[in-house]
Amino acid sequence: MYKVRIDQFEGPFDLLLYLLENARMDIYDIRVTEITEQYIGYLKEMDELNVEVGSEFIVLAAALIRLKSRMLLPRVTEVDETIVEEDPRTELAERLTEYLQTKKIAEMLQRREKEYSGIYTKPAEDISEYLNSPEELLKTDPDKFVRTFRSFLEKKKRLAEVRNRYERIRRNRSSVEERIAAMASMLERKWKNQDSVSFSELLAPNADRYDRTLSFMSLLEMIKMQEVNATQDRVYGEIEITKRTKDQTNVQ
Predict the structure, then answer these.
(1) Which of 106, 113, 122, 216 has the fewest Cβ atoms nearer than 10 Å?
(2) How far apart (Å, rounded) are the C-alpha atoms in residues 112 and 122?
(3) What are the φ and ψ backbone dihedral angles of 120, each rounded to 5 degrees?
(4) What is the mean pLDDT of each run of 10 residues along the chain (252 residues)?
(5) Taking the domains of the chain in order of start, what are their residue ranges?
(6) What sign does the CA torsion over 12, 16, 21, 27 have?
(7) Which DSSP helix (H) or strand (E) runs through 223?
(8) What does 31-65 look like in DSSP terms, one character per residue?
(9) What is residue 122's DSSP assignment?
């Protein structure tokens, strides 16, 4: 027995096609007795469940019963002394074929509607003012135009300089740990020929504010770790860095 719900079908032909598909019957070779019993059995089951069935389903049931009775009668007629075998199922097959075609078109239209429902168009605007008088777009003071263009170039140049400086700083920026290692290596080389090294000797000739700050913070960290001694004779004077001996305990 086929158990399906009425609200899954758009009409009686939809239900009939469902039954034919499940019974693996060809539209042009319907086993009328078998499919009629299944169709009527389905309607009876709905009636037992107190489900209201549309009148169009009853009409098709009557048509199937009539077709079933016609299949029991002789299907041979004589026309102009010619014997012609009639198939009562032909009309039903044609109606099912037409229904299938209509259903496919409806499904295609539903897909198109869904696709185009997500497309939004912009209302047309009247641009005849610009098309009829295109020279209006170029009417301006030449001096003002030149000043505006120069301002644009200067702004672009400043932006490029800022980007280049940012890229250079980001490329060269190093951590305190890396700077301490570099300064320690430099101090070891210089202490071989001199007792003290000035802080300025540890800076690159083109050192900027960031490099100076990072080097000074690294020097303070080295003093804190008791790796070097540093002295400064006067405020803002040169900082002299000497090697710390093992017996020294205080920073000068």
Answers:
(1) 122
(2) 20
(3) -115, 135
(4) 50 83 83 86 75 76 84 64 67 86 88 82 76 60 81 86 64 70 88 88 84 88 88 87 71 44
(5) 6-115, 172-243
(6) negative
(7) helix 209-224
(8) -HHHHHHHHHHHHHHHHHTT----HHHHHHHHHHH
(9) P
Domain 172-243 superfamily per CATH: Structural maintenance of chromosome 1. Chain E (1.10.10.580)
Compute CA distances 173 → 57, 167, 182, 212, 213, whole Å: 83, 10, 13, 12, 12
| Coil, strand or helix at 127 | coil
* Assigned token pair, 181: 């290692």
Is there a contact between 64 and 32 (Cβ–Cβ < 8 Å)? yes
pTM above 0.90, yes or no: no
The residues with which 79 forms a beta bridge, in sequence order, are 82
CA–CA distance, 104 with 17 (Å, rounded to integer): 13
Altogether, the residues listed in the chain come to a count of: 252
pLDDT in tens, 152-178: 888 888 888 777 666 555 544 557 788
Backbone angles phi, psi at 241, to 5 degrees: -115, 125
Contact 75, 86 (CB under 8 A): yes
With H, G, I as helix, E, B as strand and everything else as coil, classify residue 197.
strand
CA distances in angstroms from 149 to 143, 145, 154, 158, listed in the order given: 10, 6, 9, 14
